[in-house]
Amino acid sequence: MILLSLLLVSLSLAAQVATVGGGRFQKGDDPAWSEYGFDDSSWLEVSFDQAWETLGLERVNGIGWYRIHVVIPSSLKKGVVEAIMLDMGAIDDSDQTWINGHPVGKTGTFPEDPGGYSSEYGKRRYYIVDPRWVRWDQDNVIAVRVYNFGDPGGFYRGAFNLVKPSLKDFAKLSLVADQGGYKAVLASSVKTSGTLDISITDVMTGTPEVSRKQKVTVGAWKEKQLLYPLAPQKRLKLTYTDPRFDEILEAEVCAPYILTPPAPAEPRYNGPLVFGVRPGSPVIFRLAFSGDKPMKYAVEGLPEGVVLDPEKGVLSGSCSQAGDYPLVFTATNDKGSAKACFTLKVGEQIGLTPPMGWNSWNCWALSVSQEKVMASAAAMINRGLADYGYSYINIDDAWEAEERTPDGRIEANEKFPDMKALGDWLHSNGLKFGIYSSPGDFTCGGYPGSLDHERQDAEVWNSWGVDYLKYDWCGYNKIFEAGRDKSEAAFIRPYLKMQQFLREQPRDIFYSLCQYGWGRVWEWGAFIDANSWRTSHDINDSWESLYDNGFERQLGLHPYAGPGHWNDPDMLIVGKVGWSSSLRDSRLTPDEQYTHISLWSLLAANMLIGCDLSQIDDFTFNLLCNNEVNAVNQDTLGHQAHQDVVEDGMQIWSRDLYDGSYAVGIFNLNEVSVPVRLDGALAKIGLKAEKARDLWRQKDIETDSEYLIPPHGVLYVRVQSR
Ligand code: GAL
Predict the structure, then answer these.
(1) Contact indicator for 581, 536 with CB cutoff of 8 Å
(2) What is the pLDDT of residue 17?
(3) Atom of ligand 1 nearest to the CA of 473
(4) Number of continuous H segments (helices) and E segments (strands) in the chain
(5) Is 579 in the pocket of ligand 1 (CB under 6 A)?
(6) pTM across the whole model
(7) 222 CA to middle of ligand 1, Å?
């Protein structure tokens, strides 16, 4: 036993690292097991490359403890700071760790914690240990209490290390929005004294405006908070140096800055160049022209049965004859006039470009009401978002009455007094109406789903004038799990069923599947006539979520997107969101929001705005209403971008466009700004060009120059390659 324990600890003094390969293990739970003096000699010797399931034990779900005996050499103490760090690798699922009876860290939560258990089985544990708790050159006990849910459990990545931490291990510099400016937080688990370099530059010109230094000292296990006001269009950069270390800490933020140039007062067309409608289905289309109002509209080439409201610029009616109808739109105001060539495609395919619009979930969630929906619908028109092609107004969960009528009919609840009137109002303004349901008996929010009422529900929606259905797996899961058939067909069946009833309605209903990318939906979505499908779990307004849904979960999905069928990385997380009746500004930084919209534009993703449009601010409006950025999203080829390069925390994604040009996003996923020479970056993806069009600034830029891409930000260009 003793021999084994000794073998499991090996030391490499050169690297100042001690490796620990195993310890002692016991099922059960007792607070005394964290103490140094507890006698664990009867515990089972285990090595860390074996998860619980391979220990020859019964299945261990629940709590188990490790006690790891290790001699910590005082050589680790030498150097600039006295501290050691446990780099413990991953633990399945959550842990609480002590050294000689003193707590050092916790990752994940336990069932007894408020909010219950949450797993962090994939996360690497780094715990800084206060040197006062270490028994130098003697036996120490690291006690690890682990909660495991479902096999395997516990340590499973092999050895862990005791290391001498560097500046980045024990100190963290972050910037958080506070009181209209930014609060810098320097937190450290050892005492540090150094200098903070503060610089403020203008985002548009790159001109440095402030550059000063500040002395800072932070005690062990303390933090220092410093507040910096920041005017719009300014970038704040902090650099912390402790002279004892070569490394530095950096943090950077930016106040909201608007890149999109103002739209001209003359009319300008900003909408898609095609629209698909089935023969005989109602045409609902609003001409998307920006410019001073009032405006007069005219359309040449309209097929019989389709009419224009020349005051509102709204097309309605229907066309029974399949075919491509080339139209010319004209809009005129007192400043001038503009034309746009357009094709109305009357045929089987709808959703020829990704849907653009609004959905109630990311703002109001279950607190949605008809009044709130109307407020966003009215703002879509009055604030001018409809002039950029946004046209869907989609109600998510919580519109349903709790009970169906005795004959099984679904009704709206008291928050939605008149769905038909809502649909009529939207259509009369050229906007489209979306609704939500689930193939299960209940929706995610606990409202009645469509199970066994599919036909009835499709008919009710038709009577209200519904043009879009988001169909959310949710409550169907327990039915699927309870069934014996787990085949792909069983997964597809409930979606196929609703599709049939939607197609029987005398109107076009965009069919949006929501089942979080399960069952590789992209491989079969188009075959069951779905127009889009979610590719991942729910998005939220954090960088991690944006990164996962937008970058990670879209890898390799580009072949599956095209006119009529789109990958959906979920709704937009800009503006005032909150998933409740109280809203707040998106927690994404302005640079992250530019990345978000650039990426969704490249991905040909559904552009469903998730904020309250009646409260939209100028920054968010300009982010959503850049006609050149949106034109890539709405490009008629419908080719979704692919990831071409991943290098040094940078990623390049590109797509080809109908006019032979390319849209290219150069994303900086690092925490600090990175200069990029544009021609070099383009060469990496085989493109050669002298000029590139900066899509956010809407101006041509030289490619033989270097551009500074902010942290989590993007340089988004369109190029014509030689
Ligand atoms: C989730 C879905 C969300 C939202 C919610 C409503 O399953 O992914 O987007 O629709 O249900 O309860």
Answers:
(1) no
(2) 67
(3) 7
(4) 14, 46
(5) no
(6) 0.81
(7) 40
